[in-house]
Design brief:
The chain is an all-alpha fold. It has a single domain, classed as 23S rRNA-intervening sequence (de novo design (two linked rop proteins), Up-down Bundle). Helices cover about 75% and strands about 0% of the residues. It has four helices and no strands. The protein has helices spanning about 10-25, 35-55, 60-90, 95-120. The longest helix is centred in the middle third of the chain and has 27 residues, at about 60-90. It is elongated. The two termini are about 15 Å apart.
Length: about 120
């Protein structure tokens, strides 16, 4: 891994976050600011941002990278929760929900795998 762009979990989580952003702007106005749309965007972007922040320490501060990955895992789970709310409230379709749910499940597995490799 030379740059963050070489990290597949980064690329996938960034792409998923962009998709969530585009979907969430369709939510009702009252959900846009401090509501569900905002929380969904924030958690998906937090996941990506913490990968980037942790990656900066990958060579010399492995503990720091691990800490940021743990935060990313929490943000991944939070994003999955907000996706479920979005679907249950009728803001996204079943196909959108199932696709993003599967993607975030895979991202979560990738994060766990990377975390375990750093801890060993």
């Amino acid at each position: 891994m030379r740059t963050i762009d070489d990290l597949s979990v980064y690329a996938r989580s960034y792409a998923a976050s962009l998709e969530i952003h585009k979907l969430s702007i369709r939510f009702p106005v009252y959900e846009q600011y401090k509501g569900l749309a905002s929380q969904l965007r924030d958690s998906s972007k937090s996941l990506v941002a913490n990968i980037v922040e942790g990656y900066a320490f990958k060579k010399h501060r492995t503990k720091r990278f691990v800490n940021h990955l743990e935060i990313s895992i929490g943000s991944c789970d939070e994003t999955r929760l907000w996706l479920r709310y979005s679907y249950d409230l009728g803001y996204i379709s079943e196909a959108e929900y199932l696709g993003l749910k599967a993607e975030y499940e895979e991202i979560g597995k990738m994060l766990w795998g990377l975390l375990q490799s750093l801890k060993s």
